[in-house]
Write a structure and sequence with these properties.
alpha/beta, Rossmann fold, globular, binds flavin mononucleotide
Length: 196
């Protein structure tokens, strides 16, 4: 059975660059045999957090929120593609994730970070690690860091030169790690219901 992986990305900027990397992740995972899908926070466009998904009476959450809850519950693993604003996480993606809690539980997550410069979104990567753990995901130790993103992926998301080669190498190892944990968590959920 192929792994169902959701790839989250959350920049709302008109000239956003990280979409290249999010698309690269989805394309590469699908080429490896996974069932990967991009969840673009800007396209989903949840409201600024008021009620969490679980705080709505059953069947009364907005349609986009309900549909995403369903996808999260069905997934075997998650990738968070994150840029960095002033050493912090991007608010669009954080707003989307905060709408859910139990829906994330008992699955692995991997972090792919990027920036316009050489630091590759490392501060945001570290910040997401704690956040994803708090939300019940097991964060894999492999990470991917991309910087400068404009010199690594072209406008179509194709790898460029040496930086692109380095991304392809690190992403393959990262995807192997995520696949191993996705399969392990799926097998364990089938063997034994999660304790809560
Ligand atoms: C508000 C803002 C703050 C930024 N802060 C950082 C930062 O702290 N570190 C960094 O490496 N790049 C920073 N940048 C540059 C981003 O790495 C670059 O704009 C990147 O393309 C943003 O991702 P996006 O294009 O997907 O929105 C910042 C950009 C913006 C718009």
């Amino acid at each position: 059975m192929s792994d169902r992986i959701l790839v989250f990305y959350g920049s709302y900027r008109a000239d956003r660059m990280g979409i290249r990397l999010a698309d690269y992740c989805v394309r590469t995972l699908n080429a490896r045999g996974a069932q990967a899908e991009l969840i673009d926070a800007k396209a989903v466009d949840l409201p600024m957090l008021d009620r969490m998904y679980k705080e709505y009476p059953k069947g009364q959450a907005p349609a986009a929120m309900e549909a995403l809850a369903d996808k999260i519950r069905q997934a075997d693993g998650f990738i968070f593609v994150t840029g960095e604003y002033n050493w912090g996480v991007q608010p669009g993606l954080k707003n989307l994730t905060d709408h859910y809690l139990e829906e994330w539980f008992w699955r692995p997550a991997g972090i792919v970070s990027y920036s316009a410069g050489r630091l590759s979104g490392a501060h945001a990567s570290v910040a997401w690690h704690g956040t994803l753990s708090e939300m019940g995901m097991v964060v894999i130790s492999s990470t991917v860091t991309v910087g400068p993103i404009g010199k690594t992926l072209d406008a179509q998301g194709a790898p460029i030169d040496e930086a692109g080669k380095s991304l392809e190498k690190s992403f393959a190892r990262f995807a192997d790690d995520l696949a191993w944990w996705s399969e392990a968590a799926r097998a364990q959920r089938e063997r034994k219901a999660p304790p809560y």
